Amino acid sequence: MKIRELAVPGAYRITPDVFRDTRGAFVALYVESAFAQATGRALHLGQSHHSMSRRGAVRGVHYADVPPGQAKVVCCVGGAMLDVVVDLRVGSPTFGQWDSIHLDAASGEAVYVEEGLGHAFIALQDDTVTHYLNSVEYDPAAEHEIDPFDPALGLPWPTGMEYVLSERDRNAPSLAEAGRLGRLPTYQACLDLPWRRR
């Protein structure tokens, strides 16, 4: 397993070992010892779930209140997607910056997103299945969103396809608006999370 940090600190690309034989393939998405060595923590599992998306479906940019925050490992187990991580931590040296990674079922690759970072993706094929390992249970009252088409972010959505969004994401505030409303996590709150003080 290889784990390397992306351009946004706190986001990592996970390239697991894929064991192939005549039956197909076996992928170990999460190995605690390797994960902890690369990221400095083990991921507590609060909830596991998956989504199914049609081509052009955009989900995000989503994030949670810090504390407690929500860290997640995201992988594509069917189809293909462009995954995007955005630094939403006010005071972070990379605030407002993003990085992206192509995920598909064949590679088995995943992305790890720390608390305070925003996460989004677009399905590149019909029937794209995204699987999540989350550090805490989903709490709708603590979940927020940023406009995935905010021109100030300039996220790298592919052109030439019909975008499909939820009402929640379609009406999400820009990064600047969310900042003015005091909805964004702070870099210091993320640094003060209990797992960092061990």
Q: What does this entry look like structurally?
A:
The protein has 198 residues and is mainly beta. It has a single domain (2-197), classed as Sandwich (Jelly Rolls), CATH 2.60.120. The radius of gyration is 16 Å and the shape is globular. The strands form three sheets. The protein has a six-stranded antiparallel sheet, with helices on one face. A five-stranded antiparallel sheet has the order 9-8-11-6-13, with no helix packed on it. A hairpin with a 2-residue loop joins strand 3 (18-21) and strand 4. It is 12% helix and 37% strand.
List keywords for this structure.
4 helices; 5-stranded antiparallel beta sheet; Jelly Rolls; 6-stranded antiparallel beta sheet
Order of helices and strands: EEEEHEEEEEEEEEHHH
Shape: globular
Rg over C-alpha atoms, rounded to the nearest angstrom: 16 Å
Approximate strand percentage: 35-45%
Name of the top-level CATH class = Mainly Beta
Helix content: 10-25%
Give the strand line-up of the largest sheet: 1-2-10-7-12-5
Unreliable sequence segments: none
Instruction: Find the structural class using helix and strand composition.
Output: mainly beta
Number of strands: 13
Q: Summarize model confidence as the mean pLDDT.
A: 96
Level-2 CATH architecture: Sandwich
